[in-house]
Amino acid sequence: MKIIIAVPDFTREAHLKKILPGLLSSLVKKGARYKDMEILIGTGLHRQPTEKEIKRNLGSITDKVKISSHNYKNVFCAARSKKNIPVYLDKKLKNADSIITIGVVEPHLYAGYSGGVKVVSIGLAGEKTINATHHPRFLDYPGTRICSIKDNPFQDFIQEAASLLPVRYSVNIINNENGKILKIFKGRPWLCFKKAVNYSRKTFEKKMNRYFDVIICSIPSSKSVNIYQASRPFNYIINTRSPVIKGTSLILVKAGLEEGFGKGLGEK
After folding, report:
1. Strands 112-113 and 107-108: what pairing?
2. Measured distance CA(195)–CA(171) in Å, rounded
3. Cβ burial 100-116 (10 Å sphere, 16+ → b, else e)
């Protein structure tokens, strides 16, 4: 029995050090063995995490189970989607008997909301798949909007790609503005994700009826490491259904940009 636990890379605060020990323990109680499990970090086209980062974010479980980082070149073609997108996925998923996903549910420019099985369909995908789904033409579809998961072709692709795999269970984390856990939803992937999104709307969505001359954005430290991640507030503000800025408005984002533009293929 091969169990893959797909987790996001460390640009998202998934509190893995807190969540994974309990999850692994529950699997062992149900008959699984540590040697049957593998934690696969969904880096997408981002850079590979260092050993120090893995230890810091995963904690003591690194001594119990195998930890791997996704390699976007080590993939297989599982199918072509309904929109003729090649579905290239990590080869480690090919022989998995059961896949568990851990994700952070938050607004996302393409997916509407991140989290759910996105860590598999995108985080563990090949270069061709990620480039195709992140092409600007996806934003031309009416359904591809921040905070929208219904009739969203990007979200539809995520679900379609994951359906090709034995994804059995999902853990979805919702953080507050300080990066602390606000709520956790666990269960069947799609149902669990929808519940998490519905809850998230109360936290992240607010209707505004005016324009602002200046918007000051706060982002978590995991998003401030490079321009690719730190640019998200600009994209989100610009692409909201009801504009909140004028042509002369100023958007301020405080970010350390320790990695400049970013070190991964996706950032470059």
Report:
1. antiparallel
2. 11
3. bbbbbbbbbbbbbbbbb
Give the CA distances from residue 173 to residues 83, 98, 203, 244, in Å, rounded to whole numbers and listed in that order: 30, 21, 13, 28
**224 in helix, strand or coil?**
coil
Residue 94 has pLDDT above 90, yes or no: yes
Please give the structure tokens belonging to residue 195: 């519940």
pTM recorded for the entire structure: 0.89
Of 80, 152, 157, 85, residue with least CA distance to 112: 152
For residues 249 and 46, what is the distance between their CA atoms, to the nearest angstrom? 31
> Tokens at residue 101, please?
């996903």
d(CA 242, CA 147): 12
**Mean pLDDT score, 47-61:** 93
For the chain, domains (ranges, CATH) are: 3-204 (3.40.50.11440), 212-253 (no CATH)
Confidence of residue 256 (pLDDT cuts 50, 70, 90): confident
